[in-house]
Amino acid sequence: MLLVGALAVGALAAGCGGEEDQAPSNLLVQTAEGGGFSRSGQDVTLTLRSVSAVTTTFSDRPERASGAITTAEFVSTFDRAFGDDPPNATVSSLDRGRGEFTVELSDPRYEEATRTLTYAVRPIDAQGSDLPRQLGRVSVFIDPDTVAPSVTVSGRVIDEAGNGVGDATVTFGEPDSSTGQLQIAGSATTDDSGQYSVSTIGLSATLGATLTAIVSRPDGIFSELTETVGPYGDLENTQNFTLERSDSGR
C-alpha cells in the first residue's frame, strides 16, 4: 500500500512574519502504483495506473486540517474548480523514472473500473522529450495556490434538552450516483460541550453542492441522525444538530 506523501510546499502570504499572518495553505495529493508520460506530436499525456480511489486534501498553516474526496469526484469537479486557470503539479517518482517533474494539468479522465487516471500536461521545467515514459510508484502534488478554497463547517450537537452531546461523530458526504454509498467529504468528533469543526470538506462542497450529514454516537444512547444540509456558499459555515434519545437510551 502506498503511503500518502506530504507536499513540502507551503503557500506563505507575501511578507508574512509570524504564523498568524500566513494565509491558509490548501494541498491536494494523488498516489498511484505506476504510470508514465507519453507524447503525440506536441501533446503530452500523464497516465497514472492503479491510482488511489481517494484524493487527499489537507491544509497546513495556520490550522492543520485534513480530509478526502474521491478521485472520481475530483475529476468531475475539475473544470468548475479551476476554470481557465489549470493547476500546476509536481509529479514525483521514488523508483523507476526517479525524479520530480513540474507540469500544468488539464483535461483529467478517470476510468474507475481500471483505476486509470490521465491528464493532458504541459511541461514547465522540462521538454516533453525529457519526461520518463515509465514511472514506478508515483505521487502527484497539486499546487496549493491553484486549489479551490477549503470549506469549514462548525457547530454544536445537542440533545432534546439543549445539553451538549460529546463524543458524537459528525460526517459530511455525498451519495455516489451509481452505488448510492456515501462518499465521505469530511468528519469530526464533538468535544465535551458538543462543539465540532470540519475543515477542507472538498471541492464539491466549495462549489455549492448539497451534502448529507450523519450524526451518531457509538454507545447507541441517541438515534442516528441523517440530514440533508447545504449548499454552503461561504468558506466559514455554521450547522447545528439535535439528537433524540433512542429507545434503549431512555
Description:
The protein has 250 residues and is mainly β. It folds into two domains: 24-146, Beta Barrel (Elongation Factor Tu (Ef-tu), domain 3), CATH 2.40.30; 152-249, Immunoglobulin-like (Sandwich). It is built from two helices and 16 strands. A six-stranded antiparallel beta barrel has the order 1-2-7-6-5-8. It is elongated, with a radius of gyration of 20 Å. The protein starts with 25 loop residues before the first strand and ends in a 7-residue tail after the last strand. The relative contact order is 0.17. The model is unreliable at 1-24 (pLDDT under 50).
Written as H for each helix and E for each strand, in order along the chain, the element string is EEEEHEEEEEEEEHEEEE
Largest sheet: 6 strands, antiparallel, barrel
Poorly predicted regions are 1-24
- How is the CATH topology of the largest domain named? Elongation Factor Tu (Ef-tu), domain 3
User: What is the strand content?
Assistant: 35-45%
Radius of gyration: 20 Å
The CATH class label of the largest domain is Mainly Beta
- Seen as an oligomer or otherwise, the chain set is single chain
**How much is the average pLDDT?**
79
Global morphology: elongated
Could you say which structural class the secondary elements and strand pairing correspond to?
mainly beta
> Helix count?
2
Q: How many angstroms separate the termini?
A: 45 Å
Topology, number of strands: 16
Number of domains: 2
Helix content: under 10%
Strand order of the largest sheet: 1-2-7-6-5-8
CATH architecture of the largest domain: Beta Barrel
